[in-house]
Amino acid sequence: MKLKTKINIQSAKNKYPIIGFIAKGVLIALCTSLVLVLVFAFLLKFTNISDSAIAPVNQVIKGISIFLGVFVGLKKCKELGLVSGLLIGFIYTLVAFLVFSILSGAFSFDITLLTDTVFGAVIGAICGIISVNIKKSAN
Predict the structure, then answer these.
(1) Which pLDDT band, with edges at 50, 70 and 90, does 9 fall under?
(2) pTM (predicted TM-score)
């Protein structure tokens, strides 16, 4: 007599799928940010871009990174766009702060970190709402 045992790997794997979506989004955003910062550094080195352009360009790079991270990370997500996007933006901002602080060799905790974190969370939340709702209307 054969005893059939069925192991449901999918249910174990997908117990908390939102964590996977968030982690994927944060990693995509971080990779995008690293590439765009590298490209901008080369542009700064070989062109006459003024130093006053650095801060606004860094904000644009963060916004683009969060945008791509949320849209790619939540590609298969059909709900909780606000929360997921907010968490991707928030966690990305903290991880990016740590990575770029390590690369520069200096940690600077000031009001800029707080504003960047709020900016990242708000942009992530907006992108999360849009991402989930675009996919719902397409179906």
Answers:
(1) very low
(2) 0.83
